[in-house]
Design a protein that fits this description.
Elements (H helix, E strand, L loop, with lengths): L3 E3 L4 E5 L2 E4 H23 L7 H24 L1 H6 L14 H19 L3 H26 L13 E3 L6 E2 L2 H22 L2 H23 L17 H34 L4
Parallel strand pairs: 1-4
Antiparallel strand pairs: 2-3, 4-5
Helix pairs in contact: 1-2, 1-5, 2-4, 4-5, 5-6, 5-7, 6-7, 7-8
């Protein structure tokens, strides 16, 4: 059987020390697409979109710092503790989505406090551009021929020629399309429910869906961490489990509080 061979140069343009890479283009591009989406959300809910330029910078910095630190200390701690200056070399690659999420949450909290915004409102609306960014990052991983899948004989397997000639699961595409579907779900729910309930339910959907996908697809990935444990789960799965449980608990709370609110309204206005 002949398999699709992937041999795209990850660098689009190189001028001396400057490199324009597909990964960076997709990563930054997703933030500007997310900015456009947030402008629509702000206008839809009667908020001033002028402050979004500042929000974009906060989120971009938070994402990079959080994702980089999580990669360094969760996946390759021995190397980076021995070579601490390498932590700063983000352009060499190495960003972890779990850390990116933590960095975004921290950035949103700081932004909300400084600009007197509702943190929970911001957090819930950021789930939509967040799902887009996650998808674009995985497309970037594809261009870098990284985060490789396990060998397989499935007809849709891909040979990453820059690495080896072994047909592998295109796990980058599995995740990317799964996150694009999550984006569709989040936008659909956001448009169908009240703004108050959207604030409660969107983060729950995001956490539960994204990290369940991440947990399951780890079974098709090569090992990412540079160490082994006696646990039955990979590092990515262990980092995902608490977020899955948090998402499920959050979803239960959202529906219970929604039901209680409707019951209180019915009791207050029994004949309305």
């Amino acid at each position: 059987m002949e398999y699709f061979v992937w041999n795209i140069n990850p660098t689009i343009l190189e001028l001396g020390p400057f490199q324009l890479r597909w990964y960076g283009l997709l990563f930054v591009g997703s933030f500007f697409l997310g900015l456009w989406l947030l402008q629509w959300i702000y206008k839809r809910e009667g908020k001033d979109p002028a402050e979004l330029d500042n929000l974009l910078m906060y989120v971009l910095v938070g994402t990079v710092i959080g994702a980089r630190l999580m990669h360094c200390f969760a996946y390759e701690p021995e190397y980076y503790l021995s070579h601490p200056l390498e932590i700063l070399k983000v352009w060499k690659g190495g960003l972890a989505s779990h850390g990116g999420l933590i960095g975004v949450i921290a950035a949103l909290y700081i932004f909300a406090k400084r600009y007197h915004q509702s943190f929970w409102w911001l957090l819930s609306r950021m789930t939509m551009p967040g799902a887009l960014t996650a998808a674009f990052v995985r497309f970037g991983n594809l261009f870098n021929s990284e985060i490789l899948g396990l060998p397989t004989d499935k007809p849709w397997a891909i040979v990453f020629e820059r690495i080896d000639m072994i047909p592998r699961h295109p796990v980058q595409l599995y995740e990317a399309f799964a996150y694009l579907f999550l984006f569709v779900i989040l936008v659909f729910v956001y448009r169908r429910v009240s703004p108050t309930f959207a604030t409660k339910i969107l983060p729950a959907i995001f956490l539960t869906y994204m990290f369940t996908v991440r947990f399951l697809l780890e079974y098709t990935k090569t090992r990412q961490a540079d160490y082994t444990t006696n646990l039955p789960f990979s590092t990515g799965q262990m980092l995902s489990l608490p977020l899955i449980f948090l998402g499920i608990g959050w979803m239960i709370w959202a529906f219970i509080s929604y039901k209680k609110k409707n019951q209180n309204i019915a009791m207050t206005h029994p004949h309305s």
